[in-house]
Amino acid sequence: MRALPRIVLLLLLALLLLTDARRGARLDSGGDVIPLDEQDRSRWNHAKVAEGTALLDAVLRGGTTTPPRQAAWPGPTLPFPVN
Question: Does any domain span residue 29?
Answer without folding.
Answer: yes
